[in-house]
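Hi support team,

I'm filing this because I wasn't sure whether my run with zinc ion finished correctly. The job status page said complete, but I'd like someone to confirm that the output block is well-formed before I use it downstream. Pasting the exact inputs I used:
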Amino acid sequence: MLTKCYFCGGKVKEEEISVDFWWGEKLVIFENVPARVCHQCGEKFFSAEVYKEMESGVQKEEKPYARVTVDVINFTELLKV
Ligand SMILES: [Zn+2]
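And here is everything the job wrote out:
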């Protein structure tokens, strides 16, 4: 069981979080995902089981219960101002 952050050695805590999950060009947001979150650097760790479940979930054409619109900002454009 992971108790220390793999990256910074900080404490990790079990939490249910929202996850932005990219599958190729497709982005899905999972809610209430059990994960271990580092309280120092914010890194999230998932068990192989949870990760697998998200992988298959993103490929299922299941009807999502919510939908969000996301703004896309081109960083290069941002620097031109
Ligand atoms: Zn960390």
